[in-house]
Amino acid sequence: MALKTFPVRCLAFHGPMLYEAKTLKIYDPETKTTYVKDAESTSTHSEHSPAIATDEGVPEDLPDDMADKIAYFIHYKGWKATWDEWVSQERVLAFTEENLRTKKRLMQLANDAATKKKMANGGANALAQAAAMAMAAAANGETPNSLKRKDAASKDDHGGRSAKRGRGIDLDLEKEEYYIQKPEVMLTVPDPLKAELVDDWEYITKEKKLITLPRKVTVNDILAAYRDSVLPKRLATSAPNPASSSSSPPPSGGSNTHSTSNANNNDSSSTSKNKSISMFAGSEAEIFDEIINGIRLYFDRGLGNILLYRNERSQYQSIKKKYGENTRMSDIYGPEHLLRLFVSFPALIAQTNMDQQSIAVLREHLEDFLRYLVENRSKLFLNKS
């Protein structure tokens, strides 16, 4: 698909923050073509200019994990050229008033965090919702089937156009407006975990340190421990009470025939209740496991796209080379990166077609998992002091 227009100005994510940037090149994996701005264009004040294909083909400096993705080579305004980098399409937003307001809001949240050493109320939520707004495509379509409720009517209205836009290269204002109009999904992040987020951000970006990998306690270890610890309690507290029987006790003074018949009915009722409890436990466990598997899937799919700071990317590439491309990152990374995913979940969920009932169930489980992290905070997270 030939690129006709070239987005000169854009906004790009660097970590959780948005910065104004200039697009220098765009790589299209479908045609293995690299595009640049037409130098002879006179539209210097336009956000878009005509695009021309180069003879470069696949750029030599294009990261391996972007070889099959639309990628932008950008220059951050006011930064040295040494910071110029290739970024995936999900990290790029159109240069619009709405996105500029998002940029300003993110900056204010970061300033508050730096001065107070913790997020303001709801700060982590607002930061994550804005930061992940344009990145949902990285994991879109990867949620378990029972959590993803496809709307046939929505498919008819948006399916064809959305698919084309997903494959397109232009920064599509209509797509951004569609994201912005999606209903907000609230997820409460406890204050102790907000403090962990701020400590993590300062440790990586300010102190220029990296978390040693593999972590002793990995994401998969945490998910397994959470299941073993919490699921039995949920089943015990949520299961129907077999004692709450609607059948009446056998009346006194009745005939033997009546008593025998009543006893058989009671046996049948008891068997039915046991089956009901068993079915409930199976259904509850199935939902629980599906959500855990969904968390793992989102983490493995989204880590390289939305969960890393810039100075963690070389470590990420080294990990993949050392352990192999097929190694699950949930077996390498730990709670610090998992927590980053959780504060990104509200915006990711908002881009799915889940109905309100499914969202409510998912939110309940996610917030329960966050409470588990708080309870085991000292055992799981690094002491960065």
Automatic annotation (TrEMBL):
Signal peptide: none annotated. Its main location: nucleus. The keyword Transcription applies. It is found in: Nucleus. Keywords: Chromatin regulator, Nucleus, Transcription, Transcription regulation. Residues 37-48, 148-160 have a biased composition (Basic and acidic residues). Residues 173-382 form the MRG domain. Gene3D superfamilies: 2.30.30.140, MRG domain (1.10.274.30). Coiled coil: none annotated. One of its GO terms (cellular component) is Rpd3S complex. It comes from the Eukaryota. Residues 37-60, 142-168, 236-275 are annotated as: Disordered. The keyword Calcium does not apply. InterPro entries: Chromo-like_dom_sf (IPR016197), MRG (IPR008676), MRG_C_sf (IPR038217), MRG_dom (IPR026541), MSL3_chromo-like (IPR053820). Residues 67-107 form the MSL3 chromodomain-like domain. GO terms for biological process: chromatin organization; regulation of DNA-templated transcription. Belongs to the MRG family. This is Chromatin modification-related protein EAF3. It comes from Geotrichum candidum (Oospora lactis).
